[in-house]
Every structure is written in C-alpha cells, then in structure tokens.
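Please produce the structure of this protein holding zinc ion.
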Amino acid sequence: MKTLQAPSSPPPFMDSFIAIRDSMQFTPNGPRARLTGRHRAITTRYAVLEDSVALNTLSTITPSTYLSPLKDDFEVTYTGNSQALRTLKKRIRGVQAAGVLTVCPMCKISLPRTFDHYFPLGTFPEFAVHPLNLVPSCNTCNSKKLEAWLNENGDRICLYFYSDSVPQVPFIRCALTLPQLGGHNVGVTFLLERPVGLRLARWDPIVRHFTRLGLIDRYNEIGNDELSEVFSSARDFLDNGGPRRRVRGFIRSAAVRFADVHGASYWRTELRRQVAMSPALFTWLGR
Ligand SMILES: [Zn+2]
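Below is the modeled complex.
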C-alpha cells in the first residue's frame, strides 16, 4: 500500500472553508451567519488539526464543545456540494500521483468515488471541509468506517493515508489452493503476515485498519475473479505467440507494474507473484 499526497498549503486551508461558507445563501441567524460568527474559533481548530498532522499526534485531538452545537451548519458546508467544495475535491485528487486513484486508498479494490471524513463528522463537525480531513474513498470503505475513530485504548482504528507510513515490504499474503485432479478450480485465500522485524507499534495499526474495513474477507470474495483475469491475460499472451518460458515473467511484470503504483503490499501484486511461481501454472492455464 502506498500513502497519499496530502493537499498542501499555502493557500491556507481556511481559504477553502471561507469560500465554501460564503457560497452559502446569507440569512440573518442562518448557517452562514452562525459560522461567520465563530470564525476565530474555527481558525483555531484548523490550526490544531494541521499541527496534529504535522506532529503525528492525531489521536490527541479532542472534540470541541464550543463548536459542536453548530454540527448541522458544518454538515451543510459538505452536503451543500457547492462549486467551491467541488474545486477543493478536484485539488485533492489533482495532487495525487498518476494511477494512484484508480483504486480506493483504504482498500485498494474499487474506485474512490467519495471522500471519507477521517476525523468523523459526528465527532468533529468543524472539520467537515478541511482538506486534510477529506480522504478519497470508495463507498464500501466509507460505509464500513462510519464514525470509527479511536478504540477503547485510545488508538486510532483506521490508517490515515496523508501521513501514516506503511511498510514498503509485502504484508498481504495469499495462498493458492491447488485444483482437484484434472480440474481447474484453483482457489485463493488472503492473509496478513507481519514482516520480520516490524515492531508491533507499527503493525497493530495495520491490523486494526484491515479488521475494521473487513479487507481480508473482501479480497477473498473477489480473489477468484482476479485469478480468472490473470489466467486469461496469460492465455492471451500465449495465444498471441508469447513463448511458454516467458509466461511467468509476463505475469511477474504485471505484479511489478502494480507495485510501482500501489506499493509493495497490494493484493493484486501478491496474487500475481504467487501465480507466477506456482508449479501448477500450466495446468491452470490448460496449455
Ligand atoms: Zn475502499
């Protein structure tokens, strides 16, 4: 898994909040007026979030009792889907490296069509449109994470891909089930494996993230479809004149291409690595 590029400042992150707030219709005592009235407190909270990201002390931020009564107003800044918010979303997507957003950063399975509020909206409404709190995400991850924030020990439940580092060694593994005699019903089972020497302090957050989002189960559900994909591209390679001695290299090169974009621990990469080295490969290919 690779991390994301955090949106940068300047311009100050408050500028996008102001643009979104001021695009709301003004009515005396309406949301825009109420948010404008708390401008200074919001600015302070923005600085708190930005410092905590810079210092990697995210879990120490506590909710604001002063701003939480404006929860509904803050929610409108996000759900109102103003042009200013769409511009901000575009800016967040625009700074990511090519190919990274072809899959959701949290699961690496499907397209990230939504944004997750890393600091949950229900607990930290004032961060509804803070750029560092909007993480591209797929619908499934968004609905599985929901309001998850800290566990009973005060540890963050999900990884924060704008600053958390993920080990650049494989930790998603898969096992291929050999087919029955004469059959092609190969199966795949994924698992997490702590890299040798990786401290628990770095490993536990990964396990919490995978558990909350049910990632291993989700990989297992789609593993066989992905296998079919690998096999059919290998058969195409052979059918188009590719030599048998090169087919393992062909599969491996796809694994490397995926790893370049999505990191060393990417389930599609791991699947291809295992297929490429399996003694049963040509049986599965039926060639
Ligand atoms: Zn996802």
